[in-house]
Amino acid sequence: MAAVSLRLGDLVWGKLGRYPPWPGKIVNPPKDLKKPRGKKCFFVKFFGTEDHAWIKVEQLKPYHAHKEEMIKINKGKRFQQAVDAVEEFLRRAKGKDQDLTIPESSTVKGMMAGPMAAFKWQPTASEPVKDADPHFHHFLLSQTEKPAVCYQAITKKLKICEEETGSTSIQAADSTAVNGSITPTDKKIGFLGLGLMGSGIVSNLLKMGHTVTVWNRTAEKCDLFIQEGARLGRTPAEVVSTCDITFACVSDPKAAKDLVLGPSGVLQGIRPGKCYVDMSTVDADTVTELAQVAAFLGLALQHLFYQRPRPRLTRMGSYSRANAREGRGEVIVSRGGRFLEAPVSGNQQLSNDGMLVILAAGDRGLYEDCSSCFQAMGKTSFFLGEVGNAAKMMLIVNMVQGSFMATIAEGLTLAQVTGQSQQTLLDILNQGQLASIFLDQKCQNILQGNFKPDFYLKYIQKDLRLAIALGDAVNHPTPMAAAANEVYKRAKALDQSDNDMSAVYRAYIH
Question: pTM to 2 decimals?
Answer without folding.
Answer: 0.60
